[in-house]
Amino acid sequence: MNETVGEYDLPLSLVIFSIVFLAVDIVFGFLTNFLLLVTIYSSAHLRTPPNFHLVNISVSNLILCLSLVFSLVTVSARPEAISAMKTLTSIQLFIVSNCSLQYMSAFASIGIYRNITMNKLAMCLKARKRIVSRSIVCSWVISFLLSLVFGLSHMRNDHILCDTLNPFQRSFQDCSEPSAFAAEQITVVLLVIVCYFIGFVIVFRSYYTICKTLNISGIFRRSKIAPWNRTQRLSSESTSEITSARQYSPEEMSHSSKPFTLSDSLCEFVVHYQKNEHMLAFEDIFALENPMLAARLQKKLSEKKPLGPTLSNTSTTTTRSRAACNFTDISPDADLQRIQNMKNASALRNQSLRRDRLSLTSATKNSMIMFFAYIICSVPFIICSIPGVLQNLDGKARIIVLVFCRLLFCLNACVYPTWYLIFSKRVRKCLFRVFDTALLKLHLRR
């Protein structure tokens, strides 16, 4: 602290730590985002509408890396050495607020897109691209306008120790107490808080619906009934005495307990079954494997399909029979061919739905992990930016808290692409293919 001019200099140890952290983050941010963009562009399997959101996040990461370059300049140089120091700090605040809002909008858009496409599986590719493009354009417009107004409203007091939101400066003007917030600053902050609240509500509601539909968590049903397993060599006459009512002893948990028994004096067979809490019924297994198909089939149980003209027994060239009414060919060859076609269509449909469900589940888990990483890295800085949160701290402690919260926010630039490049199997395979192609073109590998 310089008592004569009323300035506070950032501690040298904190300056060195910030410079090293920012430099490493810039290198990893540019490298990982560049690799992810090249991988998506080079692979036709990754150029899908959902991955446009991933490209949007990578572009935001590159813009954030540009802001980190400005932060590296302002934290390492004295204010007298740079004439446009105030402009650089204002640009940093604008870019940081824009990227934070853009991340929130991107995760909300991903949740909305997953929710819509999960309920409308037959949606064409053009409609999917339209939804993604409109959501990206709207998110950029909203985040740009809000961050611009937010940066302009805080530009005036950015060099004051008690009011600044940009801690990456070498020196600050000392103050005894924070300045009073203007009406426009409070209005802008309230608008930003409302946008964050709406985004969090959309994300949590969308992923709750998705997880509930995909049965990612939770028990489908309880108290299942499973057949009673017994040795085939044991005849039904050698079992215990059979009564005409149900027999069940809930307190007896040993293997010698009597199972449920259904019988009748006129029946020639006996049915045994036991209560089991860890089994699933056939309908439940089908619903778990194909939840969307099961829901559609449940709705179509009561619907009647209209019968159309089919081939007759006496003709193979016309779809109408010589009789007055139309009927279906029931010859053995036609019946066998019809059953085979139904089996093939059912197998293909089940395979497609199972593949879609697995891919949707994997994409949902990746999106949820990215959103939780955003919460960990961004929420502390967002909370500290609210007026009055750090008013009980003195100027020095406030700057130190802002520095660490801002450095934590800077991790957003490399966390998301690193996760996809390492833990996404499809992206990792495409990345290795890109490396192999590059080595072949450079004649470094045969």
UniProtKB/TrEMBL annotation:
This is G-protein coupled receptors family 1 profile domain-containing protein. The chain crosses the membrane at residues 12-41, 53-73, 93-113, 134-155, 186-208, 371-393, 399-423. It is a multi-pass membrane protein. InterPro entries: GPCR_Rhodpsn (IPR000276), GPCR_Rhodpsn_7TM (IPR017452). PROSITE patterns: G_PROTEIN_RECEP_F1_2. Keywords: Cell membrane, Membrane, Receptor, Transmembrane, Transmembrane helix. SUPFAM superfamilies: Family A G protein-coupled receptor-like (SSF81321). GO terms for molecular function: G protein-coupled receptor activity. It comes from Pinctada imbricata (Atlantic pearl-oyster). It comes from the Eukaryota. It is found in: Cell membrane. Residues 237-256 are annotated as: Disordered.
